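User: Hey, my collaborator sent me this sequence without any context and asked if I could get a structure. I don't really work with proteins. Can you help?
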Amino acid sequence: MPKPPPPVRHWPLRPLLGVAALGLTLAFTASDTYAAARGPLAPGEGRRLAAAELQGAATTFWAVDPADPRHRSVLGQTENADGWGVRAQTSPDGRFIAYTVFPQGRVEPTTDSELWALATATGAQRRLATGIDLMAAPRWLPDSTLVVARRTSIDTVDRTDGPSARSFALLGFQPNVTDGLPQPLATVPGVDWAGAVGWRDGVLAYATIDGSGTWLRTAGADDALRLSTGIARDFSLAPDGNRLSFAEAPGPATPVLRLATADLTTRQIAPVNAPDGAFNPVWAPSGALTVGSGANQPALQGSAAVLAAGGRATSVLRSLPGQFLAPLEWSPDGAVLAARLASGTADRPADDHLSVVDAAAGLARPLSFAGYAAFAGWLP
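Assistant: No problem. I've predicted the 3D structure and written it out in structure-token form, which is a compact way to encode the shape of the chain:
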């Protein structure tokens, strides 16, 4: 069974938007209606969006006011191999942005990258680890005391029946310790892929993909739940920690992208009652599921639908004609959705921009950056 496709260098749209997106590299522009104002943010102005803007061999970290995207401030900068964007995530308490970066002069991003922590209050940066896999975004423990990164090694056994399997280690690092000793959380040998999904009852949940399908596992326990007989991806853990949404990638058993949820208490898996072609399932703080709409649904085309239990659309977040929305993550108060806003269609996207959608107004607002901006999380 082939491995799932790795992300492209600029880290464009997270989901598999259709069969054509399996090998798709998007072209990006920075043209929209909002100019970047570089003045500092005044304190107490509400929650901000964190973004990592790639321009060639450097990445700039920004805090952006979603109510007025012209109001933003620089949190820090880092150097990277030309064109290789970072993978970043803010800590739940907002004190740090953890990121993996592929430094200049290195050879292999899956084994030669580094994990860093940026202090959002001061801009101070600390290297937490070397020998990290760039392709895996950091994952924070809910209390912000530990950040999880992945180390990857390729098995040396020569296989003639397909790609060599890999071994993965999911490791925890303290954000205030330079090059500290890692805390081993899970070691996964001989699979095609493994990655952290989130935390449930204080324990790391992670997924693996091998020839038997995609499995959800719990660190330190032998209670694997098979999510799919093929490749699943785009995992999103519900706020209560008891449900997991995911997408089954197209393949012999699933000719189109298919969304499902797993009840982690009953261990039952059910399809999501969403329009055909829906993508990018993410949970709202209310427990509702938000999905990109199906391309064959004219009434919802290009929009994102917020689904209540049973799949009924409780609200629709709309894009302009000729554009479509790929949901990324709701703010903790449920007031703003971070999304990618792309022109074209889900099967044939053109340029795309990091955007915000106000839940009350329901319309997407693109954020203006000179380079390619990736979503890094929410800040207080």
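In plain terms: The radius of gyration is 20 Å. You can pass these tokens on to your collaborator as they are.
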